[in-house]
Amino acid sequence: MRKFFHLLQPGQQTNILDVGGLPRLWDDAPVEAQTTIVNLEPLPPHEAYFLKPNQKFVQGNGTRLAWPDRSFDIVFSNSVIEHLGTWENQIAFAGECRRIGKAYWVQTPAREFPVEPHFLTLFLHWFPRSLQKKLLRWFSLWGWLARPQPGAVAAAVEEVRLLTLQELKSLFPDGKILAERWLGLPKSYIAYRLPPPNGKSPECKP
């Protein structure tokens, strides 16, 4: 978040769309920008506590957003695009972020990192999904702690699709890629496009 505010420099009048987020992410933000938070699920009651006067919550689908082109100064998304299940959904999500925002900031875990962050285990995400479903319950920290039923295991595996660096570049060809590293290894990637200096951005071609 510090890097986001440093590079994109939103102010109090900046209009931000947070796709797939929750209000608490912005609780310690240094600037109270005008923020719309859109999520597929209703706002949980405990999250409503964090909703500030400069924020509003809207239910919606990040692959089919209702706003016109360039409706927001910045489209922001943190660890959401990997939860869309299929490459086709990820293409649609990236296209919407590029279409609606004059600038964007989309973060996602790196598939190249050996630890799968959702299931807290080594190397599992490098195996085919069919094998992941067989191993996840007994060979991941998530499986031992959550003790999921077979249906929940299958749903979790089908939901998460981590992106490689080359895939992210292809999804955001008009942006730059920033790698967050741990011990030299890419832990996550951020695709971003800075706000245009004249307030206008070129037409987006998905």
Walk me through the topology:
Elements: H1 2-8, E1 15-19, E2 34-39, H2 45-48, E3 55-59, E4 72-78, H3 87-100, E5 101-109, E6 115-116, E7 121-122, H4 129-135, H5 141-146, H6 150-159, H7 165-171, E8 176-182, E9 185-193
Parallel strand pairs: 1-2, 1-4, 2-3, 4-5
Antiparallel strand pairs: 5-9, 6-7, 8-9
Could you name the key traits of this structure?
9 strands, alpha/beta, 7-stranded mixed β-sheet, 25% strand, 206 residues, Rossmann fold
Separation of the first and last Cα atoms: 27 Å
Strand content: 25-35%
Radius of gyration over all CA atoms, rounded: 18 Å
Largest sheet entry: 7 strands, mixed
Count every beta strand, where a strand is a DSSP E run of 2 or more residues. Answer: 9
Unreliably modeled segments: none
Q: How many helical stretches?
A: 7
Describe the structure.
The protein has seven helices and nine strands; from the N terminus they run αββαββαβββααααββ. The protein is α/β, with parallel strands linked by helices. The protein folds into two domains: 2-111 and 162-193, Vaccinia Virus protein VP39 (Rossmann fold); 119-159, no CATH class. A seven-stranded mixed β-sheet has the order 3-2-1-4-5-9-8. Strands 6-7 form a two-stranded antiparallel ribbon. β4 (72-78), α3 and β5 form a beta-alpha-beta unit. The protein is globular and about 50 Å long. 33% of the residues are buried. The model has no long low-confidence stretch (mean pLDDT 93).
